[in-house]
Amino acid sequence: MIKWLALSALVATVLLGAFSAMSGDWRTASREPVGIAPDPATTPEAVVQVYVARAFGWRGIFGVHSWIAVKPSHAPSFLVYEVIGWRAYRGMPVVVASRRPADGRWFGAEPEIVVDLRGDGVDQVIEQVRNAVASYPFENEYRMWPGPNSNTFTAHVGRAVPELRLDLPPTAIGKDYLADGVFARSPSGTGVQFSVLGLLGVLIGMEEGLEVNLLGLTFGVDPLAPALKLPLAGRLGPS
Known about the structure:
alpha+beta; seven-stranded antiparallel sheet
């Protein structure tokens, strides 16, 4: 009973936060950094980070936006790769590379780090990330649901660069939308998945655990780092 009450309280918190965001204006919503990315001025080593943050407005009830930030050794700033959906509606490529703050808020939503690689060998990983970004097959396409969207892009990079061991949260709707066929490596590179247009599928991997996708919503369990994976609420267990 206590567990169900705690789960209900968490879901209610997510819903209240999302509805609060709905009342805001994207033009004035904060994009300021939150201070969780390393300062390039004092961090000479190479860094790769993957972030997620709740989507703006009502979309945030269900899902997150994700992006990838890279900083080669001794570089003065991060380069952020992400998909911006509105660009497709104007006939522009949706993949964007910018110098915005790696840990900037996503229109008010505070970001969370899901991958953080630093040090030896990371410059080589950054080169692999660049190649994976260039190979993204949906450069001119965007659909909020079931994909391809920002999470489809990030998952594509994860599959191409298994060194990231990318485990996107269950709220990353679109991560299971595959570019070709119905079978693929899992986004972490540690397992396999079956998915039909990102609407129906199963994934099993050392990093992700077991996930079932129904209409783009993910239900799962991670037995190695014990946690439940649920729509709306996300991952319930150790970070």
